[in-house]
């Protein structure tokens, strides 16, 4: 086991929660997976450190699990917003050090932050954004919104830019975008020098104004 191995608890073993739990376990961390549904608990039992069937809206169950000793607790309950919020609240009250909670809407997310979640994630929204951008332009491989105005995107270099150096593309002025890295086959050029010429098949990793990224998506 690595020295930096952490203890995680993941509550709610739907698609999102079970994916987090098994990935953390594969990365070498200790993972306690919790769900009130016996079937979900059984499904995941081989791919995490421990599994427990419990209703996490019950304070005593949480206490019995020693939940406050975990480094990070992920609340991945999705459908049932009330259970999601109540679980987060109880975790906070019990003194959990770092709580990550899954939100379905912006309002739900705000509520989780107010209650004391240290990090709020929006997996459905983020995936929806990514898929939508990819549908509009097949050049877009990844899309992450950092704020309403600022995004990071991974875009296959449009043909019109091939053969030009980064300086010549003038993306910084034209679209308020910075190319932070270029992926070329297996190599990652980071940071790319301004005289680096873009080649066919290059993947540009861009950060900047969402509007600028949208304009880049429209280039052929
Ligand atoms: P996803 O959309 O990621 O598939 P779901 O909302 O379908 O997520 O799944 C959430 C899981 O959380 C379900 O397996 C459900 O049994 C579990 N769950 C819901 N409420 C509680 C609770 N109070 N305590 C423990 N687990 C819960």
UniProtKB/TrEMBL annotation:
<dbReference type="InterPro" id="IPR006037">
    <property type="entry name" value="RCK_C"/>
</dbReference>
<dbReference type="InterPro" id="IPR003148">
    <property type="entry name" value="RCK_N"/>
</dbReference>
<dbReference type="InterPro" id="IPR036291">
    <property type="entry name" value="NAD(P)-bd_dom_sf"/>
</dbReference>
<feature type="domain" description="RCK N-terminal">
    <location>
        <begin position="5"/>
        <end position="121"/>
    </location>
</feature>
<dbReference type="Pfam" id="PF02254">
    <property type="entry name" value="TrkA_N"/>
</dbReference>
<dbReference type="InterPro" id="IPR036721">
    <property type="entry name" value="RCK_C_sf"/>
</dbReference>
<dbReference type="Pfam" id="PF02080">
    <property type="entry name" value="TrkA_C"/>
</dbReference>
<feature type="domain" description="RCK C-terminal">
    <location>
        <begin position="138"/>
        <end position="220"/>
    </location>
</feature>
<dbReference type="InterPro" id="IPR050721">
    <property type="entry name" value="Trk_Ktr_HKT_K-transport"/>
</dbReference>
<protein>
    <submittedName>
        <fullName>Ktr system potassium uptake protein A</fullName>
    </submittedName>
</protein>
